[in-house]
Amino acid sequence: MNSSRNASRARSVILDPTLPPALCLQASALFLDVDGTLLPLSAHPREVEVPASLLETLNALRDLSGGALALVSGRPQATLDQLFAPECFALAGQHGTERRDAVGNLHIDRRHAETLARLRPLAGELAAGIPGAFVEDKGLSIAIHAQHAQGALARLRHLLEEALATETGLSLLEGKAVLEIRSVQADKGRALRAFMAEPPFRGRLPVYLGDDVTDESAFEAVNLEGGLSIKVGPGPSVARFRLASPDAAVSWLTGHVRLEERP
Ligand SMILES: [Mg+2]
């Protein structure tokens, strides 16, 4: 079956509201979005903290899955490392623009660094014109957050699309109250496929937990592999399963650790 037919089949998947089935961790590859999935969403990306209990769960899952666990986030690698310190998980940051594989090698796409540098002042100007909006400069992508200015998002999107019309290789990605300028090559589905091509992920069943529209490309990639795509929270999705909230997602993950630890 060719990839376009596969993709359309993935889009037609009907969300099953029942809980996802239990995992065999030794045969699973775990891919976890961070904000809105493992951690509740906050007004500012700097306001979040990783509880010690979550770190413990992630460590145990990584051990029990033979190292086949990766964080997949829009956040930069450096911020993810700060959040999850002292651990150093395999991860895809900035939607895959930066990827650290399971043995610690970095794969970084710097092709658009110069163009992004040129666009940075414009992003700042646009955000300054919208009360409550602010720019998060991630280095290889630029996010404009507008959680307190949802009504202005459409206008902001229009202005950014105009600015990007003459740029090649960059496009706009819209998440929850955030617009991001990033490489067209950067999406979470692509990042997941890159991990799945490498040990220890290769040959395992991919399991992906995510909450946002930016996770849909990863859900599609997982569905094509017959894996477990799990949407966290409300909203339409191609994911096959759903967990109600970050709390429910973390409980579900922690439950697998408890099962393994049972004498
Ligand atoms: Mg998220």
Q: What is the element layout, followed by pairings?
A:
Layout: H1 3-11, E1 28-32, H2 52-64, E2 69-72, H3 77-83, E3 90-93, E4 98-100, E5 106-108, H4 113-128, E6 134-137, E7 142-145, H5 153-164, E8 170-175, E9 178-183, H6 188-196, E10 205-210, H7 216-224, E11 228-232, E12 241-243, H8 246-261
Parallel strand pairs: 1-2, 1-10, 2-3, 10-11, 11-12
Antiparallel strand pairs: 3-4, 4-5, 6-7, 7-9, 8-9
The structure holds magnesium ion.
In short:
The protein is α/β, with parallel strands linked by helices. The chain has eight helices and twelve strands.
3D structure, described in words:
There is one protein chain. The strands form 2 sheets. An 8-stranded mixed β-sheet has the order 5-4-3-2-1-10-11-12, with helices on both faces. It has 2 domains: 20-108 and 186-261, Rossmann fold, CATH 3.40.50.1000; 113-183, Alpha-Beta Plaits (2-Layer Sandwich), CATH 3.30.70. Strand 10 (205-210), helix 7 (216-224) and strand 11 form a beta-alpha-beta unit. It has helices at 3-11, 52-64, 77-83, 113-128, 153-164, 188-196, 216-224, 246-261; strands at residues 28-32, 69-72, 90-93, 98-100, 106-108, 134-137, 142-145, 170-175, 178-183, 205-210, 228-232, 241-243. It contains 8 helices and 12 strands. The protein is globular and about 60 Å long. The chain is of the alpha/beta class and 263 residues long. The longest helix has 16 residues, at 113-128. Helix content is 35%, strand content 20%.
Ligands:
magnesium ion
Estimate what percentage of residues fall within beta strands.
15-25%
How many alpha or pi helices?
8
CATH A-level architecture of the largest domain: 3-Layer(aba) Sandwich
Our count of domains comes out at 2
Please give the CATH class of the largest domain: Alpha Beta
